[in-house]
Amino acid sequence: MKFFAIAMTLLLGATSHATSLGELRGLGTMTVSHDQFNGKKTVRKYEKCKIAMNLKRSATSITMDFAVIDCLATNDFLGTYDIKGDKLVDAKGKVKGQVLADGTFQISEKSSQLIKGTRTDYQVGGINPTPRPGDPYSPARCTPITRSNNVELVKVVNYKIKQQEDRTWKVERSTSEDQLAWASKSNGICPGTSYRTKLGSSTNIQVVLK
What we know:
Largest sheet: 10 strands, antiparallel, barrel
Helix content: under 10%
Distance between the termini: 9 Å
Number of strands: 12
Order of helices and strands: HEEEEEEEEEEEE
Radius of gyration: 25 Å
């Protein structure tokens, strides 16, 4: 770390030598929130989570990965971003972040997954719309309707990374992520049905690495 030049110096091209920080470690806090169907949230906070990060950078690029070793283990291999002015650009030429005037790196990555399927709903009607005695849920008077039930799960990961005056690194990782869930509904007359849906979740990790 003692050979690391501050962000702005590297951005100005004062040195062309790559600087590897090796493996950075620290104990951080993690806050996790999950949405519920009733509109409320469940929130849990974890302390002293073991966190590691590799960071390698030069005057023209930065390569990094991040891992939470315990608590709720997770990892991101972010790969390499080219530094073009104050922008961070991935291998496909897409802008994924920026470098602020104070040397803070801000990175945002978005991914999605489409889960395809169908669902069957029922509506009152059909060949016998009159309830049969003793059988209020008779399929004979409920018409099934099959429709698509596609769910797109979106995940966004944001990083803020800044080296402090004592050469440690302050890192904040925040995410918003859709979680696959199952819901059910019934009109009180026909059979109920279950179907795929999604609920939101978020995490926030803060740590000082050295």
